[in-house]
Amino acid sequence: MINRIDLRGRSLSPRELTEILPRPEIGVEDAAEKVAPILHDVRLHGASALRDLSERFDGVRPVHLRVPTERLSAALETLDPLVRDGLEEAIRRVRTVHAAQRPQPFSVDLAPGAQVRQRWIPVRRVGLYVPGGIAVYPSSVIMSVVAAQEAGVRELAVASPPQRENDGLPHPTILAACALLGVEEVYAVGGAQAIGMFAYGATGSEPQDGDFLCEPVDVITGPGNIYVAAAKRLVRGVVGIDSEAGPTEIAILADGGADPTHVALDLISQGEHTPDAAAVLVTPSVELAAAVDARLVDLVPETKHAARVAQALSGPQSAIIVVDDLEQGLDVVDSYGAEHLEIQTADAAAVAERVQSAGAIFVGPYSPVPLGDYMAGSNHVLPTGGCAHYSSGLGVHSFLRAVQVVEYSADALQELADRIVAVANDEDLPAHGEAIKARFQ
Ligand SMILES: NC(=O)c1ccc[n+]([C@@H]2O[C@H](COP(=O)([O-])OP(=O)(O)OC[C@H]3O[C@@H](n4cnc5c(N)ncnc54)[C@H](O)[C@@H]3O)[C@@H](O)[C@H]2O)c1
Ligand SMILES: N[C@H](CO)Cc1c[nH]c[nH+]1
Ligand SMILES: [Zn+2]
C-alpha cells in the first residue's frame, strides 16, 4: 500500500537525504506554469474573468461574486447547533493563543539621547483564502480570520470557491463561520483566480447587484491546493503572503511503543484531504513499520474517502521510512520539514524539543494532528513542500510589520558625527557625511 524506504546502515549527507525522501511528482513550480495565464486573465478582465474561470474550474457560474450580507446571516441562523458549538470553542481557543502571540514593542537606549524603538504595525487590508474544492474548510475561516483580527488588521476579505449546491455561493458553513466572526466581505471565488483578484483587485458588474469591486489587498494568506500555492508564489512581491500552505503533509516519528492503529489512523486522517496529500512514518522499529502497513491495508478500504486516501498513501509523496535509531529519525524529519510532525516515542516532549524543521509539532499519543486541525488553539495553516525550513505557520506575525523608529538628540548625533563621516567617505558617499556635519557648523 505504502512505499518502504530502508535507511538502516546508511550514512547520508543532508543533501543525499533530501534527494531520497518522498516528494510529490508535481510541485508548485509545475503548477505555476498553469496558473500564470489565470492570473493574467483576472488582471486584465476582472469580474468577467472571475465568472468564466469559475465556470471552467468549479462547474458553476456565480450569480453573486460578492456574497450578499443577508446570505451570511441566513447561513448562521440555519447552522447546526452542534457545529456552531464546535466552531465557537475553536474560535475561543485559537483567539486565546493568537492574543498571546502578539509581539511586544521595545526601545533601546544606546547612549544618553540615542534611542531606537521598534513597534509592530498591522497591514491595512488582507485577503484570506479558504479552500473549498474537494472538501470545504470552515475551520480555515477561523484560523485566518482570528489571526488577522488579533493582529489588528482593519479590513478583512474572505474568498472561497463557489459551490454548485449552494447557488454558486461558498459552502453554507463557511458563510456561517464568516458571520460568527463578523466578516462581511466574502467572495464566491476560488483557486488561482481568487488569489489574482486579491492581488490586483477586480472590477466589473454583477448581473443582479450592479457594480462589482474588490479592492487589492496588502497580504494574502490561507491554505489551498497546488494551484492556490502556485498562485500565491507568483503574486508575492505584488502583495505579501504567508507560507506556501499547499497539499497537506503528515510525518510521524514513532518508536516501537507507539500504537500501530493510532499511527495508521493519523496517516489516513490527513490522506483524506486530497490524493496529493503526503503521509510519512519514520521509525526505528521494523515491527511497528510492518504493523502500521498491515493496519493501513485493513483500515483504508473502510474509511469514507478510501479512494482518495489510497491514492495519497500509495503516491511517491508517502512512505514508511525505517531508520537505525531515533537520532537518524530526527535527521530524517528535519530534512523533510513536514507541515505536521507527530512525535510518538518514549519521552516525546524531550524528542520534540530537538526537532529543527516542522510547521507544527504534535507531542505524545493524545495530541494527534486532527486536534490541531480544529481545536487545539494552534493554527492549522502551515508550510508545506519543505517551506518549513524557512517559514512559519500562520499567526499574528503574518499580518504585522516591524518598524524601527530612530530618535537621537543633537549631543548624541554629534558624538557619532566624525565616525559617520569617515565611514561615508570610505564608501565614496560624502554627501551622507555632509548632511551630518552641516548640523554642527
Ligand atoms: N497546508 C495547510 O495549511 C492546509 C490547510 C488546509 C487544507 N490544505 C490543503 O488545501 C487543499 C484544498 O484543496 P481543494 O482542491 O479541496 O480546494 P481549493 O479551494 O484549494 O482548490 C479549489 C480550486 O482549485 C482550482 N483548480 C482545480 N483544478 C484546477 C486546474 N486544473 N487548474 C487550475 N486551477 C484548478 C479551482 O479554481 C478551484 O476553485 C488540499 O490540498 C488540502 O490538503 C492545506
Ligand atoms: N490538516 C489541514 C492542514 O493541512 C487542516 C484541516 C482543516 N480541516 C481538517 N484539516
Ligand atoms: Zn486535516
Strand and helix layout:
Elements: E1 4-6, H1 14-20, H2 28-58, H3 69-77, H4 81-101, E2 106-111, E3 114-122, E4 125-129, H5 138-151, E5 155-159, H6 172-180, E6 185-187, H7 191-200, E7 202-206, E8 210-214, E9 219-221, H8 226-235, E10 240-241, E11 249-254, H9 260-271, E12 278-283, H10 286-299, H11 306-314, E13 319-322, H12 326-336, E14 340-344, H13 348-353, E15 360-363, H14 369-374, E16 400-408, H15 410-426, H16 430-437
Parallel strand pairs: 1-13, 4-5, 4-9, 5-6, 9-10, 11-12, 11-14, 12-13, 14-15
Antiparallel strand pairs: 2-3, 3-16, 7-8
The structure holds nicotinamide-adenine-dinucleotide, L-histidinol and zinc ion.
Catalytic activity: L-histidinol + 2 NAD(+) + H2O = L-histidine + 2 NADH + 3 H(+)
GO molecular function, one term: histidinol dehydrogenase activity
Family: Belongs to the histidinol dehydrogenase family.
What's this model, at a glance?
With 441 residues, the chain is α/β, with parallel strands linked by helices.
Main attributes?
Rossmann fold, six-stranded parallel β-sheet, 16 helices, 16 strands, binds nicotinamide-adenine-dinucleotide, binds L-histidinol, binds zinc ion, Histidinol dehydrogenase, histidine biosynthesis, amino-acid biosynthesis, Ald_DH/histidinol_DH
